[in-house]
Amino acid sequence: MNRPAGEPRAGAGEGEGVLVLAATPIGRPEDAPPRLSTELARADVVAAEDTRRLKRLTTDLDVQIGGRVVSYFEGNESARTPVLLDALLAGERVLLVTDAGMPSVSDPGYRLVAAAVEADVHVTAVPGPSAVLTALAVSGLPVDRFCFEGFLPRKAGERARRLAGLAAEERTMVFFEAPHRTEAALAALAEAFGDDRAAAVCRELTKTHEEVRRGPLAELVTWAADGVRGEVTLVVSGAVPTAAVGDTPAELRAAVADHEAAGSTRKEAILEVARLAGVPKRVVYDAVHKPQED
């Protein structure tokens, strides 16, 4: 039987399994949430993305892990999830930690959370540091509405198609990026969104060499050409709201053609024009593919 969201199972933590997702510092060890040390000592199983980094963290926190430690990373996530679920169903308290930030947010964890929820195992979290929210807060860009887009595709073509689909996104967008791909990512963003779109590159957040560079995308591309080091989070302002698209077949066809010219696929263009015009996507599809019926 499913419970209301947030309601623990009867006896959770006293003989019934609990999955605890614990945020870890994105930089300074002293930013660790106070409950993290308690959970590390209390857990029957600690599943860690990198057991060596976990060892360094426990040394910094001066805490002794009470249970057994297992690795849980991208390479073994599928195979290890059933094993951890068995531990949960056997009544054990499983603590999941990743290298930095909250598990399952662009890190291992989603599969285990989904399996635990499906099995009616109680899932809870130790809130704490988040690169997404930290970058958003210091970016100086609008924060009333935002979306997290994770890592952009590595291949240029796939990246361009992803960004073309986001060109009309009005919310502030947050991306993760590898330092050696930051210049290319910024150039792709400028190509898709325009050179003047405001953005911020947040590097080494909360660490000794923290840096936040703010400016139009073209300026940030030039800055990144000298090389970027460290963990990188990109924050990009949303598109200026556009006027609604007219709903006549001719207007719908013209709008789709404009989106395709800007780099969108036909499918992406139809979906976006349907949203802007406030009509079902089938209406736009028919306007494009059956113009003789105008």
Task: Record the SSE blueprint.
Blueprint: E1 18-22, H1 34-42, E2 45-48, H2 51-61, E3 68-71, H3 77-89, E4 93-97, H4 110-118, E5 122-126, H5 131-139, E6 146-151, H6 156-164, E7 172-177, H7 182-193, E8 198-203, E9 211-216, H8 217-224, E10 232-236, H9 249-261, H10 266-277, H11 281-289
Parallel strand pairs: 1-4, 1-5, 2-3, 2-4, 6-7
Antiparallel strand pairs: 7-10, 8-9, 8-10
Structural features:
about 20% strand; alpha/beta; about 290 residues; five-stranded mixed sheet; single chain; 11 helices
Number of DSSP helical runs: 11
Mean pLDDT: 90
* Strand portion: 15-25%
Strand order of the largest sheet: 3-2-4-1-5
Please state the overall shape, judged from the principal axes of the Cα atoms. Answer: globular
Helical coverage, percent range = 25-40%
Low-confidence stretches: 1-14
Distance between the amino and carboxyl termini: 53 Å
Structural class: alpha/beta
State Rg: 23 Å
Secondary-structure element order, N to C: EHEHEHEHEHEHEHEEHEHHH
Largest sheet properties: 5 strands, parallel
Question: Using DSSP, what is the number of strands?
Answer: 10
Structure explained in plain terms:
It is a single chain. The chain has helices spanning 34-42, 51-61, 77-89, 110-118, 131-139, 156-164, 182-193, 217-224, 249-261, 266-277, 281-289; strands spanning 18-22, 45-48, 68-71, 93-97, 122-126, 146-151, 172-177, 198-203, 211-216, 232-236. The chain has 294 residues and is an alpha/beta fold. The protein has a 5-stranded parallel β-sheet, with helices on both faces. A 5-stranded mixed β-sheet has the order 6-7-10-8-9. It is globular. The relative contact order is 0.11. Residues 1-14 have low confidence and may be disordered.
